[in-house]
Write a structure and sequence with these properties.
Number of domains: 3
Order of helices and strands: EHHEEEEHHEHEEHEEEEHHEEHEEHH
Shape: globular
Radius of gyration: 21 Å
Structural class: alpha+beta
Strand content: 15-25%
CATH architecture of the largest domain: 2-Layer Sandwich
Helix content: 25-40%
């Protein structure tokens, strides 16, 4: 995966060096950086589900051509469920469609009184309306294309209308190749909090990862250029993740507006991106450190229950602390989440939400 504007987020004003995200990295993540996993052959998302079904004595049977990823699941000749495009029958079509629309998802969360990120969705032609919304937020904002088909165009920590206008052009460019209905841009409060992805099946949390961006820690001697290059080398060495072109570290620094030749003070941290996608994007995924606080788990379960017909889903949460869920908000509900992030994290132990899904189907 070549690092280019398509794979990074750019920035407005500098974020506080005392942000919860950075404190979490220093206290919980940095001590584990020598423990990177080295997975062998990886199974695909669908293969994980199919093998888990067989483990529950269910018989997967493919529907359609040999290239399809749709299966029925039967036991003793009776159909008990299925998998289509990586999504099990624990997820209704209505719930899937509702979660995939950011505005509809926020409506469901709001009606169920689930704390969530107070974002708004605008068409690319509504830049003036987005600027007016920014004035009502009364804090820095971020913008990002709504469609998962857009792999770039996000800009974080914007504090002025002029910064928003420049970021809007970038996001609109990222949406240009999509249909008009998909040319949507999210404007959200910028929160330098800790991104978590929690997987819920039924009433239970079955897996959780912390999603960490690429970052560097100063030693008082090396330049930012040297530190950034080393961080990207570490990311590239993780052979089970999408590969990164090492020459891209200079662009990351440029997008942050950082001086590549400056020396970062000892123990100081600098984020290279505010990507919230963990190892599915330009970053790392860590098994959640320690026991997930009960209130964070309850928030994730409440988010899933806000969608009728949703029996299994990943929930993306931003939290100012991992010791409790005070102030945490839901920023996404993803029924089609890639389960490999839990099974093959860059750091920490495997978690097995695919087995929990099939246990629920076979119950």
């Amino acid at each position: 995966m070549k690092i280019r504007r398509a794979d990074t987020e750019s920035f407005g004003a500098q974020a506080s060096l005392e942000s919860p995200w950075e404190r979490f990295i220093i206290e919980k993540i940095q001590p584990r950086r020598r423990e990177m996993n080295s997975w062998g052959q990886l199974k695909s998302h669908t293969k994980l589900l199919v093998d888990a079904a067989r483990g529950q004595k269910l018989r997967p049977q493919k529907i359609g051509s040999t290239h399809t990823s749709t299966f029925t699941l039967t036991r003793s000749g009776t159909q008990v469920g299925g998998v289509s495009d990586g999504v099990s029958t624990l997820v209704s079509h209505q719930a899937l469609r509702a979660a995939q629309s950011r505005e509809t998802a926020r409506l469901h969360l709001r009606l169920s009184e689930v704390p969530h990120l107070a974002a708004r969705t605008f068409h690319i032609s509504q830049g003036n309306a987005a600027a007016a919304f920014m004035q009502t937020v009364d804090q820095p904002v971020s913008v990002r294309p709504s469609s998962p088909l857009s792999r770039w165009g996000a800009t974080a920590n914007l504090t002025t209308v002029n910064e928003l206008a420049q970021a809007w052009e970038r996001a609109a460019e990222a949406c240009a190749g999509l249909s008009s209905a998909r040319q949507q841009i999210e404007v959200e409060p910028f929160l330098p909090w800790i991104p978590l992805r929690i997987f819920v099946v039924g009433e239970s949390v079955v897996a959780a990862v912390a999603r960490v961006p690429l970052y560097v820690v100063g030693d008082g001697e090396q330049t930012l250029d040297e530190l950034a290059q080393r961080e990207l080398e570490a990311r590239t060495s993780c052979s089970f993740l999408d590969r990164v072109n090492i020459s891209g570290h200079a662009e990351l620094l440029a997008l942050r507006g950082l001086d590549a030749e400056s020396v970062l003070g000892e123990g100081k941290i600098e984020l290279l991106t505010y990507d919230r996608s963990g190892q599915l994007g330009l970053g790392w995924s860590f098994e959640f450190p320690g026991q997930l606080p009960q209130d964070l788990g309850e928030l994730a379960v409440s988010a899933v229950w806000a969608f009728p017909g949703l029996g299994a889903s990943a929930v993306d949460i931003l939290t100012p602390s991992v010791s409790d869920g005070t102030g945490a908000v839901v920023c996404g509900v993803e029924p089609a989440a890639d389960l490999r992030e839990f099974r093959y994290p860059a750091f920490g132990n495997s978690q097995l939400p695919h087995r929990s899904i099939m246990e629920r189907i076979s119950a």
